[in-house]
């Protein structure tokens, strides 16, 4: 696969809703939390995130999901659980939907993101500072959809993940260069984006 793009699997047999987790304690503290050693058990939803999800569920205007597949980080698991409880759906954890790993910048201020994104714009395959390459994120995120397409049909699947991985997936599925993943508007916490 070329380092700069990922071809979209079309047509799809399922409908997909992409959801970023609600506002988290990591967001509240302005920290990068991308390592499973921290993200699996700590830095769950903030009080504001809980409120966001309550409002989102009350005003839900997308097709109701028939399945929920989510990153196994605490903040995404809690987000998925709120939606799953509302719709009476059992959750399916999926490690491939985890946050992008930001290597040496773990637990550092979110201002470090800009440094990584500037490197991404020049080379989506870079591994500087131990950061997970954009191309690797695109591959694992795309693989989730491919595996769901291979095993299911006619479902409405809510994928609950994180900001960077979802931005990268959307860029890939749009057939745009992965180096441009920050060109699209940032996904807000607790936002839902249907795949066309």
From TrEMBL:
SUPFAM superfamilies: Phosphoglycerate mutase-like. It comes from the Bacteria. Pfam families: His_Phos_1. PANTHER family: PHOSPHOGLYCERATE MUTASE FAMILY PROTEIN (PTHR47821:SF2). This is Probable phosphoglycerate mutase. It comes from Halomonas korlensis.
